[in-house]
Amino acid sequence: MGKTLYLECYSGISGDMTVAALLDLGADRSVLDRVLKSLKVSGFETKISRVVKSGIDACDFDVVLDKEHENHDHDMEYLHGHHHEGHERNHAHGTGTAQDHHHHEHRGIKEITYIIEHSAMTENAKKIALRIFEILAEAESKAHNVPVDQVHFHEVGAVDSIVDIVSVAVCLDNLDVTEVIVPVLCEGRGTVRCQHGILPIPVPAVANIVSANHLYLKMTEVEGELVTPTGAAIVAAVKTKDKLPETFEIQKIGIGAGKRQYECPGILRAMIISQNAEIDEEKAQTEEFKNPEIGNNPKAENQETKDTIIKMETNIDDCSGEVLGFVMERLMKAGARDVHYVPVFMKKNRPAWVLNVICKEEDIETLQNIIFEETTTIGIRYSIMERTILPRETRTLPTPWGEVQVKVCTLNGKEQLYPEYESVAQLSREKEIPFTEIYRYIVLANKEK
């Protein structure tokens, strides 16, 4: 099962900060080195070190360029009078077309795609990296009113930016991160001077990414740019949720250092967390029914618990079953408790679907955004519903082929066992034993007890 990553962006986010934080979490440096050596890009080397930012020990990831690839024309001087190195080593925010003439190599999305596809990255890492580049390309295209395939970016095409984005993708894949929670991006204020002149903060590319991908931005009193285009694109590409579960455990912490000196610490804190909302609910219910006070109650074995759940519902026409299958997958991954859709006939006898989503209140916004993004619907209905829940707990049981997880519910003092699908499916794949054979064994073994 994949890991859940929480990115705490209170000092903003950039490409090198993200790489450093992921390396600090334990991403394999040798795997990253092997991929970077396979890139059809020259003129750089990477350095990983420890630094202290605002008294906090942090990992620093630095891409050192040779003289030919240094970004000499990237003037990042801020108007309040101080020159700061950028989070991403003086990346420019401007973008050019094919008619621009500079001494730098300018690469478009086609050239960058070729570099990634011919690297030693895994397919999943390639997918992540290409998505980040696509988001950047779309943002720059909108900012400068040119087609995506005609954008030759300094920000995206620069060697150090390519290395940062590829490194983020490799590290996320290596850590087996499948869920990413980013509640908010904290941004500074003021203006920044770059190759194309003076730009307001957030710079146009960042503003476009935030708008197009429904990210939450919080403006702070810090003077200067905290969120770089690459940092915003990384979040847009990998974020699956914007709310933390009510309770969770922190398994590991990684801290990545930025290059700028601001009033804020200048670090990105990344955490691998466990216990999603559903597990929290089951754990709370289990503890409730193990409580000694309940145990002393003669009616405890029949006791049930109640809670409140949200039902989201919408009618959808002009949508294929394949699309709805993908929507279901996204909704479940983003925190939905259950998803189903049924065929119906609407007015004028049009065939359509009714999509139903069961969720907790804190997940409504994330899930509704997925529905609006992926389907043709223009409205969603909500109902607050009470439900009764049997006490349940998760157990691990032995089988002749290995251990499996089961859900055990209690009613009138009797236990009913339900094998967990994913656990049975994984064992079936590993041992090449039919799914039904393992499932029946677990059920029958439980009945014989």
From TrEMBL:
It is an enzyme of class 4 (lyase). Residues 19-34 form the Peptidase A2 domain. It comes from Blautia wexlerae. One of its GO terms (biological process) is protein maturation. Keywords: Lyase, Nickel. The keyword Nucleus does not apply. This is Pyridinium-3,5-bisthiocarboxylic acid mononucleotide nickel insertion protein. It catalyses: Ni(II)-pyridinium-3,5-bisthiocarboxylate mononucleotide = pyridinium-3,5-bisthiocarboxylate mononucleotide + Ni(2+). The gene is larC.
